[in-house]
Amino acid sequence: MLAKSSPSESHYEDYPQIGNGVGSIRLFLKEFQGAAAEILPNKISPSRRLTWVVGNAVEQAFQPLLARLNQVQGLTVNLVALNSRYWGQDITVTGLLTGEDLLFGLGDRKLGEGILLPDLMLKAGDRKFLDDLTVDEVARQLQVPILPVSGAEGLLRTCINF
User: Fold this and answer.
1) What is the reported pTM?
2) Domain spans in the chain, listed from the N-terminal domain onward
3) Which CATH topology does 44-161 take?
């Protein structure tokens, strides 16, 4: 039977295989923890509600991050974990979610003032998803701004400065 908890940080050594996903969640958790201590205030104004979109693969691991974000008075972040209709339901990693997946998975939800979108969902150096829909097209259809964020620090700064 597999253990339910993730390996300790030391298990990943220096995170040598980030490119293929091994250790990337653990590294993001570590970066979030360090950046949150420096960046997150106790309170923000005006109040805002944001939706953070990720793949199903990280939903459980990101629950402590979500709880920490929601400790900031005036900030409400809802985590929406999606799988990919575009590639097939078995695809659950964040970086392979497409514009179509967002439209299907978010279309009937209250999304708040903006969507926090990990920029690894976009083609490198572009504002297009892997299915060639653009951030602007998806935002227009969902009727809410989409805020591409890069890494833990980008996520935190966008939450407090949007």
Assistant:
1) 0.84
2) 44-161
3) Rossmann fold (3.40.50)
